[in-house]
Design a protein that fits this description.
This protein is an alpha+beta fold. The chain contains ten helices and eight strands. The strands form three sheets. Strands 1-5-4 form a three-stranded antiparallel sheet. Helix 1 (9-19) crosses helix 3 (55-66) and helix 4 (87-97) packs across helix 9 (194-208). The radius of gyration is 18 Å and the shape is globular.
């Protein structure tokens, strides 16, 4: 896949549509990530003055806003894209494994807070859920990652702070929401069983990655 290099955001969006599933960074499968597929000029670079540029990183928000894919920590706790075509099956399978959080659980409280507010950046959600003490950030992030892995939370966009000149800087904050809020309830439903969705996704990925051992694909998708 490396021979078809990605040079810009529209090409990234096109590739996500072609593949259906595309991790952002290392997926554990050689060559199967957006980072592996971009042109060398689109990779992370640090300048002598301490500044940096990473076109691929900056394309995440526009790709999600374009509307044909969903973004979140979906691949073994790592971030990546799912096309809208494959989202119903992916959501169906993951929610089959991890249904709605139990009543009274921390996950339920996080999800309820997010539903009530529509969308929130991570640090606002953390504060609203009162995860403000020592070592609470990493604990909270672990809960949110589990909710993304189970397709109950996704990233709607990225919010960047601005300097006094109005210029954006930094790595940005994830603007989190629910898939229902972002896509609509019908886009999160599927007429197949979770097992049927899993088989369909695996068949698709095995056709895309014929030389990759099945166990590696399973590790990425479980």
């Amino acid at each position: 896949m490396r021979e078809q290099e990605i040079h810009n955001c529209p090409q990234l969006i096109e590739r996500i549509g072609q593949l259906g599933f595309l991790p952002l960074l290392d997926s554990g499968i050689a060559g199967f990530s957006a980072m592996d597929m971009v042109d060398d000029d689109c990779r992370y670079v640090v300048y002598p003055d301490g500044g940096w540029d990473w076109p691929l990183w900056k394309w995440k928000g526009p790709a999600v806003q374009e509307g044909s894919c969903v973004y979140g920590k979906f691949f073994a706790g790592k971030a990546g894209f799912i096309s809208r075509e494959w989202w119903p099956d992916f959501c169906n399978y993951r929610r089959g494994k991890n249904p709605v959080p139990q009543e009274g659980s921390i996950e339920e409280a996080i999800l309820a807070t997010l539903r009530e507010n529509g969308s929130m950046i991570t640090r606002e959600l953390r504060a609203a859920c009162e995860f403000t003490g020592k070592n609470m950030r990493s604990r909270f992030d672990a809960y949110v990652t589990r909710l993304q892995m189970s397709c109950h939370i996704v990233t709607e966009d990225f919010v960047y702070p601005t300097d006094k000149h109005g210029r954006e800087y930094g790595w940005g904050w994830s603007l989190l929401t629910t898939p229902e809020q972002l896509l609509g309830k019908e886009e999160c439903q599927c007429g197949r069983s979770p097992e049927e969705s899993w088989t369909r996704m695996m068949d698709h990925l095995k056709r895309l990655l014929p030389t990759v051992p099945e166990r590696q694909i399973i590790r990425m998708m479980k």
